[in-house]
Fold this sequence. Notes:
The structure holds two protein chains of two kinds. Chain A is an alpha/beta fold.
Amino acid sequence: MNNLTDLSKCTLAEALIFQIAQTIEDGILAFHGFGSPLVQMALHFAKRTHAPNLILVAGATYGVNPTPDFLTPTSNDWAMDRGSECSLSIEELFDLAASGRMGRMFLSGLQIDRWGNMNVTQLGRDKLKLKLPGGGGGCNLSCDANRLTIWTAAHHIQASPKQKPRFRLVESCDFITNLGHRTVDNRLRQDLKLQGLGPDRLVTELGVFDFDESGHARLIKVYPDTDVDIIRSHTEFDFPVSDQLTVIELPDATMLKIMRNLDPMGVHRKEIRAQDKNRFFLLDSYDEW
Amino acid sequence: MFTENDKRCSLTELVGFIHDGDILAIGGGLSSREPMAALRALVRQGIKNLTLVGSAHGIDVDMLCGANVVAVSNESYVGFEQDFGMAPNYRRACESGQVQVLDSCCYTLVQQLRATISGIPFMPMRSIQGTSMMQLHPEYQIMKCPYSGEELILVPALQPDVTLIHAQYADQHGNLHIDGPLVADILFAKASKKVLVTVEKIVSHKELQNHGITLPFIYVTKLSEVSYGAHPTSCYPFYAYDRKHTAEYYRSATNAETFLTDYLLPYVFNCNQHSEYLDAVGGKQTMNLLAQWKAGKQQWQSLYE
């Protein structure tokens, strides 16, 4: 069903996991929430590679440093907190964030704007048109966690014959569930004196952005099969491009083995759209011998 | 506080303590330890117009929305994660206006419950500022801190009328042992006017002490022994999540008509007793399969494939 024994190339999902993992600092407390297997994978991968002292708190179970044998398709499952060193309670986890002790949180949205604001609550401003599942504790953690990584595997516009194309990276969110660098009434985030500094990375399946001094998303990386023009055509807002624009780094064969052992059922691939299931990237440093 | 020596009652009696229009907090979270048998009984007993408060939920809230017994949702998340996706009944109910959408978020809920537990009318917090949650909840206030001069958000005390929990063990006095992630159960229980509990097994006080007491009896109003009472969500170590049944649920929920004919009728309305429901979902064979997670990694993993 897949090429997961082939170590000469990585899947789009694996490239995304690697990019998300690059944002995780060693020694911090990071939390993956629920419904986010790519992030789950990135945290477990980081812990097993460059961030061995990471305090990995599993979403929904609140287990600390678990070593699950496999990923389950729902996150509040005992399979996900096996091997945990200890567990936190819901209030403890959120208190740690509120008091400035959560290093990083990972958030997404059906709409993401130029300031890294995210909507997971509803489409439609005055009248609700589409009810989204809601953000769990994301709204709180977007304010409290020291830094945020935003990710989406659905940057590519959704074309439909009847309606105009639906963007994921939008001019403005219908509802701001998770706070980026500007408030709903256009104030600067830093004026609110929140605990957290806001998003510093936006990883999508088309490119990678950081946020410039004004808090605006800025393109810093493209994929081997994307470029600035492609990314612009799928982004409703205009964005600056870094002078040091590069092509994303890819994991090496040893790293791929680590990732593939984490998720034997391939739960994380559910985040990847059908059109992207066959996107692979050749590892340039691959050495058969 | 609840001092009755023997709090045991039938499931029907237990659910009889929930009234139309109540603020209901449902214990558990996502696909774990949802008090599903009590919720099915609640639907059968025709209780309506509930306001639901909670953190991260799935089939429990979705089923209540599909049965049209919810008036307001104060939940933080309702969905089936990457497993099946959005919650179909919940979505329809919110989008049609049948359910008023007043989404909350986890820490806001925690702070509101803590206010009630501490007997204080509100709790301050830093987060939510700058988001649309402030417009959705005009009851949240901004206060200048008299000590630091910072602006803080005040959220009002929240007191559920009823908390409904499914636990592994209890004694007849109402002491509970909950195994595994507690989610918001303890906060809900301490903040609520009434706490109604279904448990896998009622045991002697001595045996319960050996398991360890997670929630003291003083908070617990009534309890009922309902084995497999969380099915199709998990209640480890007794049984894992029934993904197959949940897939059937999800297919039936594609539209309101099929949800009634293919789910509510066969699994809720036509099962007057919990034992009839268990037969309808495959009886002993299904339950033994869900207990197989203990046999090893392969057996556990196979429950999700």
